[in-house]
Design a protein that fits this description.
By secondary structure, the protein is mainly alpha-helical. It is 73% helix and 0% strand. Helix 1 runs antiparallel to helix 2.
Length: 143
């Protein structure tokens, strides 16, 4: 990997991480403000309380996804330091910078990712259910 490419990717990853962390911080601050506001609104009915709880749940889910994205970016930064970031895990070819700019934490090129997705879909379609507790042997013994 050339030095300018590595520097570009490093700045891009760090910028994306900072952007996501800022979103997490803003979301947490908004949640605290909402909690304080709710403490003063004693006239809420059950519907209002339900909506507030749903909004809290959704905000927590979004924050969880963002936290996972930060972890993936940290992994990408580690791979960058090791010299493996931007290389496809499957074929070893360089992942185009354009793809990394859109999805900075990917570890496969488009071709290999599509192949992995097809294999995953095939595996999901052909999942074999475990046998039930009632086996055919049990049924035969009952006769």
């Amino acid at each position: 990997m050339t030095v300018p490419r590595k520097e570009l990717l490093y700045r891009m990853l760090l910028g994306e991480k900072q952007r996501i962390l800022a979103q997490i911080k803003a979301s947490m601050e908004a949640g605290v403000e909402a909690d304080v506001r709710m403490g003063f609104e004693v006239t809420q009915d059950n519907a209002d309380k339900s909506i507030d709880e749903l909004e809290k749940h959704i905000a927590a889910q979004i924050t969880g996804v963002r936290s996972e994205m930060v972890d993936l970016i940290d992994d990408a930064l580690n791979r960058l330091n090791e010299g493996t970031y931007g290389l496809c895990d499957d074929c070893g070819e360089e992942i185009p910078v354009e793809r990394l700019m859109i999805l900075p934490f990917v570890s496969r090129c488009v071709r290999c990712q599509e192949q992995a997705d097809r294999l995953k879909k095939i595996e999901q379609e052909h999942v074999i259910e475990p046998p039930s507790e009632n086996t055919y042997e049990d049924e035969l013994l009952e006769e």
